[in-house]
Structures are given as C-alpha cells and as structure tokens.
Amino acid sequence: SLALDDQPVKQYLLRAGESRSWNAFEGFTLTVGNAGGVMLFLDGRALPAIGRPGQVVRNLRLPDAPPAPSAHE
C-alpha cells in the first residue's frame, strides 16, 4: 500500500519485473509485503534494501526525515 503526502492509502500489486513511479510533495508512506523483493528509488537514487524476502515492512516513511525548509520560507 502507498500513501502520497496526506492522501488516503491505495493498494497496488506489482508483479515480478514491473515498475511504477509516483510523485509527492512531502513524501510517501509504504507498506511492502515482500521487502526483499522490491528495489526502491528516491529522487533517482537507489535506496538500501528495506528487508528480507517475504518480510512485511509497514509504515515506511520516505524520505525518512522531514524536508528542510526552503530559503523562501
């Protein structure tokens, strides 16, 4: 499942070899049913593995820290 910014959670099923892209202003909250079976990228950069094959990871927040305030705020 995936939540973008403060939007409601949506469910997605990705098959082997399939990829999807999403955009958010503040970040993403994920639940992954097979943590060892996914590769995650954030802003074009590969992220470290989030778990083992078959492991469920809940409420993973990306990015893991709130964004820094911009110079214009």
Commentary on this structure:
The chain has strands spanning 2-4, 28-32, 41-42, 45-46, 57-62. The chain has a 3-stranded antiparallel β-sheet, with no helix packed on it. It has a two-stranded antiparallel sheet with strand order 3-4. The relative contact order is 0.23. The chain starts with a strand and ends in an 11-residue tail after the last strand. Helix content is 0%, strand content 25%. A hairpin with a 2-residue loop joins strand 3 and strand 4 (45-46). It has no helices and 5 strands. By secondary structure, it is mainly beta.
- What integer value in Å does the Rg equal? 13 Å
Determine the oligomeric state from the structure: single chain
Give the count of helical stretches: 0
Elements, N to C (H/E): EEEEE
What would a concise description of this structure say?
With 73 residues, this protein is mainly β. The protein is 0% helix and 25% strand. The mean pLDDT is 89.
Top keywords for this entry?
73 residues, mainly beta, three-stranded antiparallel beta sheet, two-stranded antiparallel ribbon, 25% strand, globular
Which helices and strands occur, and which strands form pairs?
Layout: E1 2-4, E2 28-32, E3 41-42, E4 45-46, E5 57-62
Antiparallel strand pairs: 1-2, 2-5, 3-4
